[in-house]
Amino acid sequence: MESPDFSKSELIPAIAQDDESGDLLMLAYMNEEAWRETLSSGRVVYFSRSRQKLWRKGEESGNVQEVRSIYLDCDADTILIRVNQIGGAACHEGYRSCLFRRINPASGETEVVGERVFDPKDVYRK
Amino acid sequence: MESPDFSKSELIPAIAQDDESGDLLMLAYMNEEAWRETLSSGRVVYFSRSRQKLWRKGEESGNVQEVRSIYLDCDADTILIRVNQIGGAACHEGYRSCLFRRINPASGETEVVGERVFDPKDVYRK
Question: Which residues, in sequence order, are CB contacts of A42 under 8 Å at separation 6+?
């Protein structure tokens, strides 16, 4: 059985990619417990660095990520999960992808290129 | 001008995605200097954690990554770069993508799903 090398680092970056479109949705981190629960539950579970606890993606918004396939990189320190993103949006700001700001390398200016699927005010209770 | 928030962390994860196929190629890290040189040179520059110095991707193998577009995530702590991967392979093991091992969630076994483009022995001198 191969798994991410949590001996190198307690937290390993995990990338969620939309299985159908190939769009990159977000990057977050997994500890070993999040990794194991992701494998066993078929839904993506991260470890929240700010809250210092397991983060079952979508537990509040309903926008869970169903696991389609899981990949490990050559050094076993990056995880890629191809997912079915329920609700169509991964980002807490309501965009399909968290990576919705494109940077112009010459000017350094950003442009919003993502599509807003929901209004965060309607989804997250205060 | 917006940029990754290097005040949170000196090193920010940067994901390289093939601009044509949408395949995820690799994840590495950038410090502020690598970020600036990536913007100004149009080629992806990482910071190597093992060597503790700038890593101009492809400087030895010739497999440079030409920048096509750059994205920043909602928290400014993840970088996505869509690239034209020269030589067709991002991984030092000769695969197109570093994420060439698929994990079976039930058994934990891995299967190589990537395509080997070159033999590392022919590319990297001892």
Answer: A66, A67, B105
